[in-house]
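Recap for those who missed Tuesday's class. We walked through two folding examples back to back. For each one, the amino acid string is listed first and its predicted C-alpha cells come directly after. Nothing is annotated here on purpose, so try labeling regions yourself before you check the end of the notes.
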Amino acid sequence: MQQQILHLLCTVGTCRLHFSGREHQLTAGCCMIAMASHVGSISPSPDCQLLQLLLPADWQASCMPGSSYGVCGWLHLFMHPIFQLEGDTLAVVKHDFEDVAFRSEHTPDAYREEAVKQGMRALYLDVMNAHAALFEHEEASLRSADIMSRFIRMLEAGTYRTHRDVAYYAGELCVTPKHLHKVSTQVSGRTPSYWIRQFTMMEIKHLMMHRKLTAKEVADRLNFDNTSHFSRYLSR
C-alpha cells in the first residue's frame, strides 16, 4: 500500500481531526503535515477554509531540500506535525499551497510533474524555515543525513509492517546496528527503535480506532506471529 503525505493549512474557521489516536483542532493559521494513513476523520466548521495537498511519500521525498537540513527538518515535522503560522510566514505558506494547486491544474502535461515538484520544494523550504523558528532544527553531516533519510523512507514505505528489528534496517542500509543507532540519535535525538515503534503504533491506533479492526485483524495486517505477540508488543 503506497503511503501518502497529507498537507493541510487552515486559513479561516476551525477543523477537528483525529491524528495518532487523539483529537486535534486546527484553527486559522494552523498547518499540518503528516502521513495520511495516520489521520482519521476530518470535520471542518461551516466557515472553515482548508487548503489540502496529498502526495505519495516516495514522490514527496524527491521534493525535499537537497541539504542535510532537509532531512532534519522532515524529522522535526514528523515529531511536531501540527504548528501555528502567523503574519508574513502564513501568507507565504498559503501562497505556496495555492501555487502548487494552480500548477497541478494549469501546467501542460509534459511539464506538470516537474512544475509541481518545484512548487513543493518552495513550500517545504518555507515551512521548514517557519518550523525551525519554533522547534530549533539542526544540521547533520551529509553522510548521516543520507543514512537517516533512507531509513525513514523505508518506514514511510511501510517496511515496519514486516520488519521491526533495528538489525534488519542496518543491514539494508549497509551499516552496523550500532552505527545506525549513533546516526539516528545524532540527527533526530531519537533511537532507530523509537522511529520503528512510532510508525508501528500510529498505524495500530488508526486501524483500531478508525477502521474498527479487532486485535487479531490488526496483528495479521502488521504480521505479528499471533495476538499474544501483538499484546506483548503493546504492553512494552
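Example two. Treat it independently of the first, because the proteins are unrelated.
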Amino acid sequence: MKNKKLKVAIVYNESAPELYQKSAEEENTTGNFVPYFEVEELTPMEEFEYIGKKLRRVGFNTYTLNIKDDLQSMLNDFEKNKPDVIFNFVELYKDEPQFEMNIVGLYELIGIPYTGASAMALANCQSKIFVKRLLRSKGIQTPEFFIVEEPKKSYHHNLIFPLMVKPALEDASVGIENESIVTDNKQLKERIEYILKYFYQPALVEEFIDGRELNVAVLGDKKPRVLPISEIDFTKMPDNLYNIVSYQAKWDPHHESYHKTIPKCPAKLSKKVEAKAKEIALSAFKIMSCRDYARIDMRLTKDDQLYVLEVNPNPDLTDGAGFMRSAGAAGYSYAQALKKITLLAWERRVNGR
C-alpha cells in the first residue's frame, strides 16, 4: 500500500472539550514580567486538527477522533472507518493516567498498528520507581531516592538536601512545582504529605541534582537514532524560582517560569559529554522498551556527571517544542517527523510485528 492511501486516525481523549472555551479576558491575561514566548494557546482539539492537516500534506488520509471516555464509540468508529494506522495521543482514561496502557492494549487486540510505546512500555515507564531501579541495575545513574507510601511522624533518610518530592506515578511534570524542592525535614514532611493526600499515590523523594538540564530525543524502532540534544536554559530564571521544569514551566504560558525556561537546540556540549549523553539515552530507550519516539531528560553536573531524571515515551509532539525541536535540528520538518513516526507504526504491520 502506498503512503498516500494510508488512512490515519489521530486518536485522543478529551472528555469535556467545552471546558477549553475561554473568555477574551482570560486569553489576554499577562503576568508582571516580560514574556519570552509569544502566547498563542490552541485547544487540544485545534492542535490535533493541525497535526491531521500536516499529515494530509505528506500524503495520508487522516481524521481526528476524540473518544470522550467512550470506548464503545471508539470501537464503532474503527469498525466504520477502518483506519490503517492509529496515531495515538490518548494519555488517560476516566481521568486516570494509569489506564493509558489499557487503551493501546485494545489497539493491539483489534490488530490496528499504532504509534509510540507498547502497553508494557507505557506501564513500566509510568512508574518512576521502576524506571529508576531498572536503569540503576544497568549502570545508568539516577538521583539517590526513597519512596514513601503512607504518612509517618518523621521520615528518616540519608539523602543530601535540597530534595525533590514528586508523585511516583505521574508524567508530564504533573505534581512538580516550585514547592517540590525542599531544604529541610519540616518542608520534606509537608510536601510528602501533600503528595500522599492529593495524588493518592506514593511520593518519590530524590536528591535534587543541580546543573544543566538536557532533553535527549530518540527516534526509531528497531534502529533508533538519537537526535540533536536540546538544553533548557535557566539563566533567566528569577531567584524566587528553582531551576526546574515544573508543570507551570511546561504548560502555563501565563506563569513566569514558562518564559524563563528557554530551550536551546542543539545544546553546546563537549564532544565527550554529547557522546555520553547520546549513549545513555539510547541505552535507556532500549532498556525501557520504547519505540518510535521518546525523550530522555537528564541533568549534567559541573563535573560532567550525567543523571537520568525521566524516560518519556510518547512525549509531547507540539510543533516547535520538546521532541520536535530536536527533530527540526536533525533536518526534519514538522510534517516529515510526523510522517516518519506514522510509517514506523505501519512498518510493524507490514513486517508482521
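Answers for example two:
The CA atoms of residues 144 and 321 lie 29 Å apart.
The chain has a mean pLDDT of 93.
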